[in-house]
Design goal:
By secondary structure, this protein is an alpha/beta fold. The protein is built from 14 helices and 18 strands. α11 links the parallel β15 and β16. It is globular. The mean pLDDT is about 90. The structure holds threonylcarbamoyladenylate (TXA) and magnesium ion. Threonylcarbamoyladenylate (TXA) binds next to β7, β8 and β12.
C-alpha cells in the first residue's frame, strides 16, 4: 500500500487534448487537479515523477540547482552523468536555447524534429551563453540534451509548470527503467522508506508505450555527422531514412559502439551508459539464443557457464513459441513472455517490466531469449532492446548462442 510520503495520482491521458496552437485542455477533473498540483510542485522546485511514452521520468525544474540536486540524490545518480531537459513546444525551446549565429543549429535537426518530435528522440544542443540552466543539469559538458515527449500527461505537466523539466528515468540508479507508476513506487520506496520527510508525487498515466528510453543524438560535435550516442525509441535506420528524405543524405549517421568507438569518449560521462552498469535487476541476466535444433544439454551448459546450479530458480524472459521454454520446462519455475519473435516493438515495451517481474518472484538467474532472425535484433528498435539486455547482464560476454 502507498505510504504517506509516496503519493500516486491517477491521470487519464485520453482526457487531455491540445488545440492547434498547443493550448492544453483536460476534461477529467481529477486528472486536471493532479497535473495542476504536480505543476505547482515543480514551480516550487520539488520533485515529480511522471509518465512519458518511453519510460517514467523523475522531474524537477531545470532552472534550479537545488531542484536538480534533489534528482541526483533521489536516484543515487553519480553527479557526472548529465540529464535530459524536457520541453513541451518549439517556442519553449527557443525561449531557453535561442538560435545563435556563432553556433548554428545543424540542418539535420530541422528534419529530425519534424519527423520525430514530440517523441522518443533527444537532441544535443550547444549550451547557450549565459545559460539559464542549473549547472548540475549538464555536469560540466558544453552541450545540453533536449527532448519533447509525446505523452499527453508529460506535455500538459511541462506546459503548466512553464519551465523546462530536467528528468532522468525514475528508477534508482543502475536498475531497469520504470515503465509504469508502480515500478517508480517500488524503487523509490526501497530507497527512501527510512526517511519520513522525503516526499514524492507520482503521476500514473498507464504503461509506457515504447518501453525503452529515447535515442540520444549528437549533431553538433562533428560537422557532417549525426552521432547516435544511445540507441532507443527511434532506430538509427529511421534517422538515416529521414535525413535522406530531407535531401540530407550526405550527412553520415554513426552509431556509438558500432560505427565508431573512442577511448577518450569512453572514459568520459558524455558517453551515455558506458560508465555505469545499467538496467540491471538484482540477479544475473544472460542473453540466450536457441534454435529449433538445440540440444537438451542446454541447461547444463548454461548452468556450468554461469557457475550456477540447476536447483536454483530460473526466470525465463521468452519469445512466444519458444524453443528455450520447451527445453527449460523441467527447471524453469517462472516465465514472462516478450511477445512474438518478429515484433521488436513488443519486446521493447515488455523488457523492463519482464526483468522486474521475474526479479520480484525471487529468481536467481534470468535468461532472456533472443530471436533467431539476426535482422530483428540488429535493426530498428530491436538493436536498442538487445543492447539493454547486454548491459543488464554486464556486457556482451553474457550472451550465449546454442547450437548442437
Ligand atoms: O526517454 C528518455 O530519454 C527518458 C525519459 C524520462 O525522457 N530519460 C532518460 O534519462 O532516459 P536518463 O538520465 O536515464 O538518460 C539520459 C542519458 C544519459 O545516458 C546521459 O549520459 C545522456 O543521456 N546525456 C544527457 N546529457 C548529455 C549530454 N549533454 N551529452 C551526452 N549525453 C548526455
Ligand atoms: Mg536512466
Amino acid at each position: 500500500m502507498p505510504t504517506n510520503h509516496l503519493n500516486i495520482r491517477r491521470c487519464l491521458p485520453e482526457s487531455i487534448h491540445f488545440s492547434s496552437d498547443g493550448t492544453c485542455s483536460i476534461q477529467d477533473a481529477d486528472t486536471n487537479q493532479a497535473i495542476e498540483e504536480a505543476a505547482a510542485l515543480l514551480r516550487a522546485d520539488k520533485l515529480v515523477a511522471f509518465p512519458t511514452e518511453t519510460v517514467y521520468g523523475l522531474g524537477a525544474s531545470a532552472l534550479s540547482s537545488a531542484a536538480v540536486q534533489s534528482i541526483y540524490s533521489a536516484k543515487g545518480r553519480p553527479s557526472d552523468n548529465p540529464l535530459i531537459i524536457h520541453i513541451h513546444s518549439l517556442s519553449m525551446l527557443e525561449r531557453y536555447i535561442p538560435p545563435n549565429l556563432s553556433q548554428p543549429v545543424p540542418a539535420a535537426y530541422q528534419a529530425l524534429i519534424e519527423a520525430f518530435w514530440p517523441g522518443p528522440l533527444t537532441l544535443l544542443y550547444p549550451l547557450p551563453n549565459f545559460s539559464p540552466f542549473a549547472s548540475e543539469v549538464v555536469a560540466s559538458l558544453p552541450t545540453i540534451a533536449v527532448r519533447m515527449p509525446a505523452h499527453p500527461v508529460a506535455r500538459a505537466l511541462i506546459q503548466k509548470a512553464d519551465r523546462p523539466i530536467a528528468a532522468p528515468s525514475a528508477n534508482v540508479s543502475g536498475r531497469p527503467s520504470p515503465t509504469d507508476a508502480l515500478h517508480v513506487y517500488t524503487d523509490m520506496l526501497a530507497k527512501h522508506q527510512n526517511d519520513p520527510d522525503w516526499h514524492l508525487t507520482i503521476l500514473d498515466g498507464d504503461q509506457a508505450d515504447v518501453g525503452l528510453e529515447s535515442t540520444v543524438v549528437d549533431g553538433v560535435s562533428c560537422e557532417g555527422e549525426v552521432r547516435v550516442l544511445r540507441l532507443g525509441g527511434v532506430g538509427s535506420d529511421a534517422i538515416q531514412d529521414c535525413l535522406r528524405a530531407a535531401g540530407l543524405g550526405q550527412v553520415k549517421v554513426r552509431v556509438y559502439g558500432k560505427d565508431w568507438q573512442d577511448q577518450q569518449l569512453q572514459a568520459k560521462p558524455s558517453t551515455p551508459g558506458m560508465k555505469y552498469r545499467h538496467y540491471a535487476p538484482s540477479c544475473p541476466v544472460l542473453c540466450v539464443q536457441a534454435d529449433s535444433s538445440c540440444s537438451t544439454s542446454l541447461m547444463d551448459s548454461i548452468a556450468s557457464s554461469f557457475q550456477s546450479s540447476l536447483s536454483k530458480k530460473i526466470g525465463l524472459l521468452h519469445l512466444e513459441t519458444s524453443h528455450l521454454e520447451a527445453l527449460c520446462q523441467p527447471c524453469t519455475t517462472v516465465s514472462y513472455s516478450l511477445g512474438s519473435a518478429d515484433q521488436p516493438a513488443v519486446h521493447a515495451a515488455r523488457l523492463f517490466d519482464g526483468l522486474r517481474n521475474l526479479e520480484q518472484q525471487g529468481v536467481d538467474l534470468i535468461l532472456v531469449e533472443r530471436p533467431e532472425d539476426d535482422f530483428i535484433w540488429e535493426s530498428g528498435i530491436g538493436s536498442a532492446v538487445w543492447e539493454r539486455v547486454g548491459k543488464a547482464g554486464g556486457g556482451l560476454k553474457s550472451s550465449l548462442r546454442f547450437r548442437p
